[in-house]
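Researcher: Checking consistency across runs. Here is Calponin-homology (CH) domain-containing protein again:
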Amino acid sequence: MHHMFKDHQRGEKRGFLSPENKNCRRLELRRGHPCSWGLCSQALMASLAGSLLPGSDRSGVETPECVQGGVSDLQEEGKNAINSPMSPALADVHPEDTQLEENEERTMIDPTSKEDPKFKELVKVLLDWINDVLVEERIIVKQLEEDLYDGQVLQKLLEKLAGCKLNVAEVTQSEIGQKQKLQTVLEAVHDLLRPRGWVLRWSVDSIHGKNLVAILHLLVSLAMHFRAPIRLPEHVTVQVVVVRKREGLLHSSHISEELTTTTEMMMGRFERDAFDTLFDHAPDKLSVVKKSLITFVNKHLNKLNLEVTELETQFADGVYLVLLMGLLEDYFVPLHNFYLTPESFDQKVHNVSFAFELMLDGGLKKPKARPEDVVNLDLKSTLRVLYNLFTKYKNVE
């Protein structure tokens, strides 16, 4: 099976083997690792040295301990070089293990926060979004902090989203070159975001230092600005360990970092309504509202021998919304105007958008939700759309 691969000269990854091939292991050349081929050749020399140097059993001459130690170290280095590309990244760096200069400060996410399901969901949603945007570039991002720190992927992402071309070198190997590229990319980001008055919670040093919190803040802001067709989990907060070295001693403290708020706040819809209050303060009444809306939609969909049991999932592809509008307004919707069995995300968005157009034609206000919110199973958005229909058509038989 053919797989997308990435240019190793750009510090990216190549996937050589299909995951389905159970007899093979997927090999990756990972950024940040020493060139495994050079060290493997050293390991080969070390193996030869073990049998040919004067200290081997084939000669009666004893090898000095320093030579034996050097050979052993070289063999171990070669072994590590072979294994390291397939080893997972170090999970966490503990404050006591962190090497800092005087007054230098480092931050890291508390390990317990990394295990939070909402945090994991946020990382996955952003990863999937980046890979969807960059699919034509044949770039596959697997780890945010490892793949975005040098500015290469961020450059491609911003160029694709903004439809622009940045004046930067395509390949940068040195740290100075990487930071210069990052500076150019982040300045372009700041030019986009500054008019919105957002607080920018990242810097060249924090991104290049693989600070995951800073990288997440940057990506969330980009997703918000470009109205990405994704559903970011709400109220994601992480505990961050801040380590600073003063007078030769490490001092650590914990702070709370809010990565996301509500969908409405993040996507620029700041006016609250009854559904915000319902979700925030009366979740026990949510089932009552859902049951009433299910009764309403089934009253009409039953005419087509259709039935809804789950609001958040069964309206996500837009088909039932289109058919419901036809029933409520008493007209037949031509099948060529929408996808009766949508398969892709874009087809589902088309259906929901078309249903919204039918609502506008019927005299309803433009829905507060985005089509992408409904497709992404955002219950609050779906309820808002259905409640607007209920308000106007509740007396229609």
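Researcher: Does this match what you'd expect to see?
Model: One thing to look at in this run: The domain at 108-235+260-269 is CATH 1.10.418.10 (Actin-binding Protein, T-fimbrin; domain 1).
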